[in-house]
């Protein structure tokens, strides 16, 4: 292992063996690299790889880190536990969940966000509450916050839904993502012998992207660390962008305080050119209450200037980006080294259209992810039911897909019977008294599953699991009958084969044991995990590219109301938005292009937006930005306006005593929305508000 490529502070961190250490460092300063080398260094110093637990933010990052460490020290590194918090907890619970008592057993199902929402919807319906008022999206995020300790109390009806939702999960031996972490903590807290075992087992903990841990994860780290406290955390408080999930950038200081940790600061950036880094540093300098303020230095020349472009319409902006990509691509930058980043998923569409037109190959992160597709979930549910026929949630998904004349009424009847008799639906089918053909249809279904079970157990290569399920279930026939759309879905399913293929290599044990691990992995996939390394331009939200880097980055739709987002009202939230923008700009290695548009269709309405304040804050050397500052000042000359404000309509120019010149961007029955200059952003007024004066051109 060659340590000479590390700088002094990196080396100091890598060589730190005993006791807690916090590496606080800016973007691209080699935090992740330092953590990777430290794992290698520990192993070289004779530390048992089994006693090392390293936590990364995504499964993909974990896989890449494992590959790197294997390169550094060889196959011994395969024994290191390298996973996300959720995967670690899933693994822990697969062996320890029975400590929770009767309700759960090891064969639990991990349900994803969509499943959770569906169960909440069903619960609200069953309790006869208004599904609009008790909207499943809102409740899901509320329950999640509640489970994470971000909320102290739920209102009475919410509490009722919450309890019933949890009962349903427990009854069906299933856990949502939040449960994974909470139950792990619960077991460790309540069972000193289990805690002692894990404390003895894991002697070294390493956490990447520490700035995005929430308090529950923090508690878990604390529990897992034994009295030696060999805890190594790396992170950048300026890149903390998961406040909405309870992440707290102050955890760094808390860690240093509570663990009495040593601190190492890295301030040499090895990713971006000087121009890019200057812009990023200027931007983040506007945040108040920064923790561990640092001044990042670039290791490179100035490089090309950061480019800023404002277009008249969102479509124009997308075409501008497409053309720029073509030029950059012709200059020998592969598509895969280019990323287009935006604040929220909905903004991708207009760029996709432009890329299609220009024949630019692209991949969108997120959206409907591969593993959320119906056909993929159906396939996995079949496999689940083969492994665990008692899994009601999976069984319900596929019992009548393809159609087997088993209607919703029958399914509900079986479920009710099963609940009353405290048995699974699978067992209920045998015991229930059902008439004629329906009974036969149900028995036929069971027969299909039993046949699959037998065949899967006998397979000598797991790559055939998918074909087998497709054929025996009749799913393939069903897709065949669907024509073109069926063909697409069939192709998606074929992609699953590689997952089983890889899983078969990665895991040991019987077919069933391997499949069990593969299913867990898939349940815990994140957006970053899905995108393959094809030569395509990556379209992504900023949250999805944390920790990654690209030669060329476009940050688009940089407009007041979009980025910073309209919902970020107070200065704390604006600071979070600014950190998100900082993450975006620091993904770029060589080129950074910022763009926005004057008009944009959003939520079905035409909206006028001012350029984001963040552009000005980057202090770019760009005449147009300087000129715009002057224009704004000039346009608020007080003599040009009349006083009536009743007839203000969308597109009108207005002025306000405090906010100056602005444009009306939206108006409904009650409210007028006005976009002011970058300093003030979008403001809301009741219609006819006297403070708004229309400007006569
Ligand atoms: N000492 C070094 N010499 C040369 N290159 C380095 C050095 N340290 C790190 N790098 C390179 O710098 C880039 C950024 O490193 P890395 O991703 O580890 O930074 P990071 O601090 O984790 O960034 P982020 O804050 O975005 O997570 C990588 O391409 C890495 O290989
Ligand atoms: Mg990193």
From TrEMBL:
This is DNA 3'-5' helicase. Transmembrane segments: none annotated. Belongs to the helicase family. UvrD subfamily. Its EC number is 5.6.2.4. One of its GO terms (molecular function) is DNA binding. It comes from the Bacteria. ATP binds at residues 25-32. InterPro entries: DExx_box_DNA_helicase_dom_sf, DNA_helicase_UvrD-like_C, DNA_helicase_UvrD/REP, P-loop_NTPase, UvrD-like_ATP-bd. One of its GO terms (cellular component) is DNA helicase complex. Residues 274-547 form the UvrD-like helicase C-terminal domain. Pfam families: UvrD-helicase, UvrD_C. Residues 4-273 form the UvrD-like helicase ATP-binding domain. It comes from Acholeplasma brassicae. Keywords: ATP-binding, DNA-binding, Helicase, Hydrolase, Isomerase, Nucleotide-binding. The keyword Manganese does not apply. One of its GO terms (biological process) is recombinational repair. The gene is uvrD. PANTHER family: ATP-DEPENDENT DNA HELICASE SRS2, UVRD / RECB / PCRA DNA HELICASE FAMILY MEMBER. It is an enzyme of class 5 (isomerase). It catalyses: ATP + H2O = ADP + phosphate + H(+); Couples ATP hydrolysis with the unwinding of duplex DNA by translocating in the 3'-5' direction.
């Amino acid at each position: 292992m060659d340590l000479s490529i590390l700088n002094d502070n990196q080396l100091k961190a890598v060589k730190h063996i005993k006791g807690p250490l916090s590496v606080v460092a800016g973007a691209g300063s080699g935090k992740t690299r330092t953590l990777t080398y430290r794992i290698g260094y520990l192993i070289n110093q004779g530390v048992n790889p089994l006693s090392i637990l390293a936590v990364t933010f995504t499964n993909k990052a974990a896989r890449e880190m494992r590959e790197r460490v294997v390169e550094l020290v060889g196959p011994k590194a395969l024994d290191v536990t390298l996973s996300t918090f959720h995967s670690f907890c899933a693994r822990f619970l697969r062996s320890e969940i029975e400590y929770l008592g009767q309700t759960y057993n090891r064969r639990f199902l991990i349900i994803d966000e969509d499943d959770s929402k569906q169960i909440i919807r069903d619960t609200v319906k069953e309790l006869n509450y208004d599904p609009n008022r008790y909207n499943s999206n809102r409740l899901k995020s509320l329950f999640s916050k509640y489970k994470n300790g971000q909320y102290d109390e739920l209102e009475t009806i919410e509490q009722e839904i919450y309890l019933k939702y949890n009962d349903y999960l427990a009854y069906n031996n299933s856990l949502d993502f939040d449960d994974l972490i909470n139950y792990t903590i619960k077991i460790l807290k309540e069972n000193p012998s289990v805690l002692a075992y894990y404390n003895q087992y894991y002697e070294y903990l390493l956490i990447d992207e520490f700035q995005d841990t929430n308090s529950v994860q923090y508690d878990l780290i604390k529990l897992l660390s034994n009295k030696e406290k060999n805890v190594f955390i790396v992170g950048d408080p300026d890149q903390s962008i998961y406040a909405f999930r309870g992440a707290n950038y102050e955890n760094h200081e808390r860690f240093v305080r509570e663990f009495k940790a040593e601190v190492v600061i890295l301030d040499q950036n090895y990713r971006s050119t000087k121009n890019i880094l200057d812009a990023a540093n200027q931007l983040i300098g506007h945040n108040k209450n920064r923790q561990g303020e640092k001044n990042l230095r670039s290791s490179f020349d100035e490089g090309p200037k950061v480019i800023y472009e404002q277009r008249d319409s969102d479509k124009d902006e997308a075409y501008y980006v497409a053309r720029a990509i073509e030029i950059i691509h012709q200059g020998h930058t592969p598509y895969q080294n280019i990323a287009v980043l935006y604040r929220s998923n909905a903004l991708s569409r207009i760029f996709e259209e432009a890329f299609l037109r220009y024949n630019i190959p692209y991949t969108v992160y997120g959206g409907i992810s591969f593993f959320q597709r119906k056909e993929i979930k159906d396939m996995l549910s079949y496999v689940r039911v083969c492994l665990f026929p008692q899994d009601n949630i999976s069984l319900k998904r596929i019992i009548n897909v393809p159609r087997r004349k088993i209607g919703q009424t029958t399914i509900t009847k079986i479920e009710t019977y099963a609940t009353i008799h405290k048995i699974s639906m699978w067992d209920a089918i045998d015991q229930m008294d059902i008439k004629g053909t329906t009974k036969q249809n149900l028995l036929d279904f069971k027969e299909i599953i039993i046949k699959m079970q037998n065949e899967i157990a006998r397979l000598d290569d797991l790559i055939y699991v998918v074909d087998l399920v497709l054929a025996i279930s009749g799913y393939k026939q069903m897709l065949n009958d669907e024509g073109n759309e069926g063909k697409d879905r069939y192709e998606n399913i074929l992609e699953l084969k590689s997952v089983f293929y890889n899983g078969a290599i990665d895991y040991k044990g019987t077919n069933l044991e391997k499949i069990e691990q593969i299913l867990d992995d898939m349940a815990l996939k994140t957006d970053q995990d899905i995108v393959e390394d094809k030569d395509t331009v990556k379209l992504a939200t900023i949250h999805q590219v944390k920790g990654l880097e690209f030669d060329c980055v476009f940050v688009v739709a940089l407009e007041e109301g979009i980025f910073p987002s309209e919902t970020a009202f107070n200065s704390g939230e604006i600071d979070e938005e600014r950190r998100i923008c900082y993450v975006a700009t620091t993904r770029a290695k060589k080129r950074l292009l910022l763009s926005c548009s004057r008009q944009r269709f959003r939520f079905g309405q035409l909206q006028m937006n001012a350029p984001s304040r963040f552009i000005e804050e980057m202090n770019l050397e760009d005449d147009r930005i300087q000129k715009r500052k002057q224009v704004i000042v000039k346009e608020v000359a007080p003599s040009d306006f009349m006083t009536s404000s009743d007839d203000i309509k969308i597109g009108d120019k207005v002025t306000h005593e405090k906010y100056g010149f602005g444009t009306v961007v939206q108006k409904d029955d009650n409210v007028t929305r006005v976009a002011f200059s970058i300093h003030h952003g979008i403001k809301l007024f009741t219609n006819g508000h006297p403070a708004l004066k229309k400007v006569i051109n």
